[in-house]
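Hey L., structure's done. Input below.
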Amino acid sequence: MNDANAAAFAGEVVVLPKADQRCASVSAASVLAKVRRDALMAELSTAHPEYGWEDNKGYGSAAHRAAIASLGPTEHHRVSWNLV
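Output:
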């Protein structure tokens, strides 16, 4: 799910704090998501080296935020987070 289709989700959401510590499937999904995110950040750093994605792994470092401020967001930035 991404920002574009999140509003279309009509299912029930159950919040389980620290679920990755209590449920093996949630823990596994968390690891898989982080591995995929890290791979995506490496790919994006090649295509857009000016944003420094290889170093921040999806978390907005000061240098990354400065690049957004001066260059603007790419199509890969989550503009719904109000960080740009």
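The mean pLDDT is 84. Residues 18-81 form one domain.

-- N.
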